[in-house]
Amino acid sequence: MRMPSAVVQVPALRPAVVLWAAPITLARAQSSPFMTGATALQTNILAWLTPIAIILVMVLGAMAMAGRASWGWCLGTIVGIAVAFGAPQIVAWVRAMFGV
Fold first, then answer.
1. Angle, vertex CA 58, rays to CA 68 and CA 69, nearest 5
2. pLDDT at 44
3. Where is pLDDT greater, at 33 or 62?
4. Closest CA to 87 of 33, 49, 58, 56
5. Angstrom distance (rounded) from CA 43 to CA 54
6. What is the structure's pLDDT at 20?
7. Secondary structure of the chain in the HEC alphabet?
8. In degrees rounded to 5, what are phi and psi of residue 66?
9. What is the pLDDT of residue 32?
């Protein structure tokens, strides 16, 4: 004698459940519009910052050749460039450190 199952299986409802759950799964897979905008802003800032950093290093080199550069300007420029171009890695590191 077979025991009745507690779960009733209805094969006709399976496609309906899949179609109902698909938009929820796709919505979770897509990123937030704010994240998309932040990524686009970051890309644009880095595109503008690259030639500015190159010109700044060239100006610092010319100032060093003329003997007018101080170490504070050189170190500040190096740290600024490292922070500007390493921002995504720094943010990922801080988020991982605090478990966010």
1. 15
2. 95
3. 62
4. 49
5. 17
6. 55
7. CCCCCCCCCCHHHHHHHHHHHHHHHHHHHCCCHHHHHHHHHHHHHHHHHHHHHHHHHHHHHHHHHHCCCCHHHHHHHHHHHHHHHCHHHHHHHHHHHHCC
8. -85, -10
9. 86
The residue type of 5 is S
Residue 58: Cβ within 10 Å count: 10
Per the listing, tokens 């590191």 go with 93
- Exposure string of 10-49, with b = 16+ CB inside 10 Å and e = fewer, is eeeeeeeeeeeeeeeeeeeeeeeeeeeeeeeeeeeeeeee
Burial class for 69, CB neighbours closer than 10 Å (0-12, 13-18, 19+) = middle
Look at residue 52 in the predicted model and tell me its pLDDT. 96
pLDDT of the residue at 16: 53
- Quick count: other Cβ atoms within 10 Å of Cβ 98? 7
